[in-house]
Amino acid sequence: xxxxxxxxxxxxxxxxxxxxxxxxxxxxxxxxxxxxxxxxxxxxxxxxxxxxxxxxxxxxxxxxxxxxxxxxxxxxxxxxxxxxxxxxxxxxxxxxxxxxxxxxxxxxxxxxxxxxxxxxxxxxxxxxxxxxxxxxxxxxxxxxxxxxxxxxxxxxxxxxxxxxxxxxxxxxxxxxxxxxxxxxxxxxxxxxxxxxxxxxxxxxxxxxxxxxxxxxxxxxxxxxxxxxxxxxxxxxxxxxxxxxxxxxxxxxxxxxxxxxxxxxxxxxxxxxxxxxxxxxxxxxxxxxxxxxxxxxxxxxxxxxxxxxxxxxxxxxxxxxxxxxxxxxxxxx
Length: 332
Fold this sequence. Notes:
About 18% of the residues have low confidence. This protein is 11% helix and 18% strand. Among the domains are: 33 residues, no CATH class; 39 residues, no CATH class; 142 residues, Tumour Suppressor Smad4, CATH 2.60.200. The protein contains five helices and 15 strands. The chain is of the alpha+beta class.
């Protein structure tokens, strides 16, 4: 496309002159008219002529391998199985073919029904012995047992009821031996739990101690105390931890404020001693009839007087006392 500006300059752009920059009016823009591209001069591809079947005269496409009318093979020139083409048969009545000529090779021709004279001649020949009656009969038809077995229905699978398993008695959970406990636990060995019972520990749920602690855990329903026999000279107060092999003698598992190894009580033959094991909430000792304790016991052993109470956790109160006769018989 070319344009002429008002000053007579020829410009390649049609909006402003490339020489002087003057605006070019639309009427000065001349569009380029290019001649149409010549048509392709490629020679036409010849279309192959259709094939005419030499057997039946039917017209087939040029690339056909067989005649669609009679099946003639264009590649090998083999005629179809039937000598007479299908399309060449006239619509006229043909004479009845000869039975011998129409019988396929390898098969027995079907003979017409014998007349009365032929039947009488056959009966005479049979009575005179001219027929070979000793000729072997045709062999019987045998059944392929392999094929016959394939069509038989499968035998039903017998359903066997599973045998009942014997009941398994539950095994009691036993604490691991002291030798399997880690050395880093600083575990205090206990005396064997044998000998006559003399002392027991009562584990109570104390609502007053719970109110003084201000715990957010729900208080269990107070009831009768749990009586724990004390057969050795030492007893651990705490909560069970199987992963750390901690199995206390006085288990306060319901009270989450009690540490795993909270307090150790020791008997020297005449007095009981209490020693905190570095618990998180401390160990407190109170006397009956007095106010609740407000400060934990100091580090080290503290003597436990008669009827004094041990307070741990959020609501647990423990009293160490001598066993009664009924308790001695019950734990014997």
